[in-house]
Structures are given as C-alpha cells and as structure tokens.
Amino acid sequence: MKYRSALLSGLVTLLSSVAHSQCVVSQDAKNRVITTCQFYAPKNGLLVNRPDRSQALTQVTFLGSEYLTYPIWQDGTLESGDPKKPIPCQIAFNIATNVVKCRFEGDEQEYEVQPEAFTIHDMRFTSQLRDKGSKTSRVYYMVLYAGKTRLLKQIRSNLSVVKRDAYSLEQSFDGTFINSKTYFIQRNNERLRVVNLSRKSVLGVLKDPTSQLDNYITQRKLDVNQLVDVVAYYDGFQK
Asked: Which positions carry the signal peptide feature in this UniProt record (predicted)?
C-alpha cells in the first residue's frame, strides 16, 4: 500500500507532462467525469514512459479531471491582437496547469497556445502576463463583468490523492480533482485585488468616499450574481 501511495504522489507531478494517450477523461456508469491514467512502474518506484521486462502496467482512476469542461474539447475562439477577428478552433483548457490547447479544423495536430483571450461557448477568458524567471507566460481569468471596473474569476484544479494503508477500506477512486475559485476586482487596469463574497471585502476593495456603495449593499454575505450587480452599480457612478 505504501508503495502504491508513493507512485500516486509521483503521478501528481507527472500528469502535466505525460502523453495525452496515457490519461483518458471519460464518464463512468453514474455519469461522473473520471480520469483514468496508465503508467509503467519499475521496481525502484519511479514512473517512466518506456516499458521493459522489469516494469508492470499500473492503472489509477481519479474523480473529475484537470480540464474546465467535459468533453474537454469545446468549440471556441482565440483572440490575439484584434478582438474583432477571433480565430475559431476547438479548445481544451487545463485549469490545473493553466495551459490552453487548440485544434484547428482540418488539422489533427494539437497546439499549445497563449492567446490574449479566448471564448468557450458563453465563457470569455482574458489574461494577465506573468514573469517567471526568464520566461513570460499568461494567466487566464473568466470575465464576469467588464467595464471601467472588471470582475474576474480564476478557476484552479488540484489533485487530492488518497493515502491508502493496509487497514483502510477499499476506495472507489485513487484521488479527486478539487476545483477552487478566486474572485478579483481590477480598476482602470491596475493590479488585481482579491475579493471575497462579503460586504466587508467588497467595501475594502472598492473605495467609495461618497458612501453610495455602503448604502447599496445591505447583506453581509453575497452570491456571485450579487457581486456582479454590486460591481456594475459601483461602475455606474465612477468618472
């Protein structure tokens, strides 16, 4: 059991780099989205891609997936430069690695892309540049409201691996992909500021010396739709 747990821990870091064919996202008999991964495990416990006689095929199944949608490929458009000239393609957005992949019509190749923005159905994502050492990459956020003030949502996925031991009951899955959401407010292209679904947090981020916003928000806790409404109201009386 400890050996299997060690393999699973190694697989967490491997998922982002393994070939697409090694991990398959599907639905089970209960219509749950699952990710099934196969890999070869030699006696030393390291995960490798090329089998030999000393390696055994191991399969693990996780609840959920590291992608935004199911099926993972969805019709969408990319924006690069001119938003009035979107580029159609099928998009797979990996919210665990923040990687956007694209398949163009008539081309079987999958391309990793970094568009300024992209849209999947009615969900539009915009990006912020991030410097990591000598490399520059983009971080993607879903746009909930866009005016002088913007409300953005970042969706991330992390794999929680089940730790098994000799006394544990048999588990249906070897781990679960857990999604998290973080909300940001951006005013006049300034830095993003985290905001929670509460009156106190909103008033702390959106400074309003006129107290109009203070009087407008009557509830201590807000849902997402109320947060969008509050930001739109605030935007309405800003110069």
From this structure: 1-21
